[in-house]
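hiii, so i know i said id send this last week but things got crazy w the move. better late than never?? heres the sequnce for the chain we talked about at the cafe, plus the structure i predicted for it. fair warning i was half asleep when i ran it
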Amino acid sequence: MAAEIPEGDEEFCQHIRRFISDTIPAEMAERNKRGYHATKEDVVFWTQALNARGWSVPNWPREHGGPGWTTRQLHFFEYECFMGGAPPLSPQGLHLVGPVIYTFGSSAQKAYFLPPIRSAQHMWAQGFSEPNAGSDLVALKTRALKCGDEYIVNGQKTWTSDAHKSEWLFLLVRTDTSAKRQRGISFLLVDSKTPGITVKPIYSIDNAHILNEVFFEDVRVPVGNLVGEEGKGWTYAKHLLTLERSFSADISRCRMAMTRLKTIRRHILEQGPVMPHDILFDNKLAQLEVELLAQEASVFRVIAEEESGESNTAVPTSSILKVCGTELTQKFGKLMVEALGTYGIPLYAESDCLGPWPEDASGPEFAAGVVSDFLYRRSASIYGGTNEVQRNIIANMLFG
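okay and structure toks below
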């Protein structure tokens, strides 16, 4: 049962803010505010704390265990969590496969899979992209051959976030090679411990292990793990990808970046007189703040449209927010590194912020996490469908 909360916007935000402050350890909050990758232990801790109050799936409808919040309340909740240093909730379960299951899954699938997502007992990974099927996802070749009451899966997925620490995978597989490409795809739920699955790490440019290659060799999956109808996987995937792009507006991340950028700027200015290049930098900072305000205005317009029931389905809103949000995130990261100057050269170890700032660190404490997050966020304009593809979608829908 979700805890009762105030209805007013400011009272709602204060209520969430107090809960975050009372629940999250200071070290965990500081690590997340600095942009380091949250550990699985952090995510499980926070999800379980929220689940105890009925808030662990804030975007789900009440009938599936969500708190029944409005779109506006959900936006404020996510903002307060991010600014308070809360670990991110697992997007693969919360935003992606969960809504697909409760929208298209069977009653048995809903009963079995949804409660462990809410409690973080099951973490999920998304098996969509393949070596030759990324933005052109319908080119996927991972095959699922039906044999009695099982599917036998063979193929490879890549760029699979968190596959090495997930209990379940959701896959797009080809169940019919004779049908039109989109019509031969199905949506499968696969236990990560199933024999025949091999996970190999891919280390990203910030030296982090988030991504993986996943190989399937004669992996047997019960037919009961097929979501919806065979051959309808592309329909379910489009539903899911719209959800993925919608939470890529990155307002909270950009607002946090703006706060950090101003802090860095203040520390740098304290070290010497204002120089001509400082004025140029301030112009860049002002431009980014204007772009952020414009993105926030777009998000609130979308919220108002959704709450009034006047959303325009002819406008590719999720793609527009995804392009603007991810590119704005990258601009903030670039400007933070620029602001650091020579302090922006080292890749500060995450261990540096687990206690007092070490005296032998390569730079000041306010530099922690900036470079590693900047490097990692280069991927933001790629995942969820590259921004080049999103621009094609926008052009096709708006101009035909």
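btw Strands lie at 124-127, 143-147, 150-157, 168-174, 185-191, 197-203, 209-222. thought thatd interest u
miss u guys!!
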